[in-house]
């Protein structure tokens, strides 16, 4: 055999081996601001600066390689995913240094994280909030480095996914109509090494992390931090928490004691994870599709009177961000992945009401479906149509900016993509531009 033929055979064998390999790796970085900056989540704070730290904020990264196709999943102890400029810089670096083109980068929705909406333009952060602008560089580097390290730790892995209905841990905070919708699904992705050592446990749950008073101007991961610590201690695995469709879901058990709530929820997650048996993946596969959709805003932030009302409720620099964000319509990201043909991951950039996730699971016809809210951006609330008709906080146009029915359109698009990935629907040759 010639040298060229031998090399070609080696490359062919390596390619075939890669196509049969399922790998995973995980890593963490601290993303706690080092300087006082405005805090995200409560309007009554306006632009008050932070005064310290209760517990650190982290970026927890999980990288999956399914037959040579890679995906990054990053859970952030932040109120939302990074704003579009930060998101694109993070993704560009990840792509350049790891080749990973697809990612779910999601905030836990803690209301004790930093404001992420400033820019370096006059009147939009520059000058008044330079410390926050410095923080964005710190945050972007830390998130990218977590993914890069997780990618460097890829190893052959076994996987299991499962879900249970967990009663008593969340409740509907919006509707006054019975029966009130509630997403009780605690969903777990467990990844072990080929030898059986835990690599990571991903937890997907829907409940607002608002258990610490707004008057407390200190950073905290809220219950997600206690949950992740509980998993790490019990499983010796990297914990990743991704918030679900929590737009109308509040915490129930444990009242305002975020540590007790997180520990109790973490104990349930550990119990579920231990009940799963990770197995080798015979035919690893990964399909990912992503797009930005466009909807008409229900509020005109260019209207001077409307803008003044928002600026009094929040503060001018924050409102100017959303004025720019919605200048061409409300444009949320939708990211959909199908892993190993039977695990679906759907991420969308907003606060979705629980019935969106419930109905998507019912219709998707996959073994396990993860719904990631606050993912790859943030475009405020997406109530169901009936929620918008009922009105109230989270459903009214002041915080649910996109046209009524936008959430249903996003869920329907996700469902169609999943069916196309499964070969149940034929994808059109050309897509209608948005």
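^ structure tokens above, recovered residues below v
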């Amino acid at each position: 055999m010639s040298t060229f033929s031998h090399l070609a055979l080696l490359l062919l064998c390596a390619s075939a081996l890669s196509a049969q390999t399922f790998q995973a790796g995980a890593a963490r970085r601290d993303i706690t601001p080092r300087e006082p900056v405005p805090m995200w989540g409560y309007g009554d704070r306006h632009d008050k600066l932070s005064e310290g730290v209760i517990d650190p904020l982290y970026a927890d990264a999980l990288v999956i390689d399914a037959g040579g196709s890679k995906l990054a999943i990053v859970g952030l102890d932040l109120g939302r995913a990074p704003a579009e400029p930060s998101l694109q810089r993070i993704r560009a670096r990840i792509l350049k240094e790891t080749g990973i083109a697809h990612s779910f980068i999601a905030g836990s929705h803690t209301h004790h994280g930093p404001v992420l909406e400033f820019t370096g333009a006059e009147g939009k952060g520059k000058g008044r909030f330079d410390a926050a602008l410095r923080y964005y560089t710190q945050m972007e580097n830390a998130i990218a480095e977590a993914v890069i390290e997780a990618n460097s730790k890829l190893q052959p892995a076994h996987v299991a996914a499962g879900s249970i209905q967990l009663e008593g841990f969340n409740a509907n905070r919006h509707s006054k109509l019975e029966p009130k919708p509630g997403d009780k699904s605690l969903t777990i992705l467990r990844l072990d090494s080929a030898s059986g050592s835990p690599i990571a446990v991903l937890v997907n749950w829907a409940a607002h992390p608002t258990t610490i008073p707004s008057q407390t101007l200190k950073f905290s991961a809220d219950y997600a931090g206690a949950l992740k610590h509980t998993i790490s201690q019990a499983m010796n695995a990297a914990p990743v928490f991704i918030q679900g469709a929590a737009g109308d879901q509040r915490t129930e058990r444990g009242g305002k004691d975020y540590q007790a709530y997180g520990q109790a929820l973490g104990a349930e997650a550990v119990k579920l994870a231990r009940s799963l048996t990770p197995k080798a993946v015979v035919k690893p596969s990964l399909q990912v599709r992503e797009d930005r959709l466009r909807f008409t805003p229900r509020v005109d932030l260019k209207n001077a009177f409307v803008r003044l009302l928002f600026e009094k409720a929040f503060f001018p620099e924050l409102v100017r961000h959303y004025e720019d964000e919605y200048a061409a319509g409300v444009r949320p990201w939708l990211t959909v992945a199908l892993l190993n043909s039977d695990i679906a991951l759907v991420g969308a950039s907003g606060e979705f009401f629980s019935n969106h996730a419930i109905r998507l699971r019912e219709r998707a016809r996959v073994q396990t479906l993860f719904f990631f809210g606050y993912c790859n951006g943030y475009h405020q609330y997406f109530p169901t149509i009936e929620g918008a008709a009922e009105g109230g906080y989270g459903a009214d146009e002041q915080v649910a900016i996109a046209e009524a029915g936008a959430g249903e359109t996003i869920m329907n698009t996700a469902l169609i993509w999943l069916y196309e990935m499964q070969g149940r629907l034929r994808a059109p040759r050309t897509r209608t531009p948005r």
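DSSP finds ten helices and 18 strands in the chain.
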